[in-house]
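## retry 2 of 3
previous attempt timed out at serialization; input unchanged, resubmitting
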Amino acid sequence: MSQFRVNNALNSTYVAGFDTSGMLSTAAPLRGGAQRRRALGRCFVIMLAVMTISALSIEKTYTADADLQKPLDIMNVKLYLHNQINDWEQFECANQLGIKESNWRANAVNKNSGAYGIFQHMSEHAHKWDAYKQMDKHIEYINARYDGDWCLALTKLEREGWH
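## retry succeeded, writing output
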């Protein structure tokens, strides 16, 4: 007896033993025919619909929980700033500046001065910048005004209320 016949016989015995409802035997006539193609097409459409609905529900979950994502975003911005400064002591001063200026809110607005962002920029374009652009611009400012010394900027803020 060939290997194919042995495997086929074993498969038939296995299927007959567990296919008590006859589901597999009713699908047998669909092999290779137009009905099979239609059935596969329907399965594909149903699967695509289920995946789309699942993706939409996941997207709604994340947009509804946007407030839960904000601390993670702020940590990414802080990590970005730390990588740009590359000095722990200077980063600690920069972190204190961010806390004192806006509590690390990228959309903070100073009602008195009109300054905007984490480090309260006075640029007319500041409201268009994301948090990373705000970091880049403020690094440029600290480098130009305080020779890159964030702790000096923090001291000035604490002494005079601005830096």
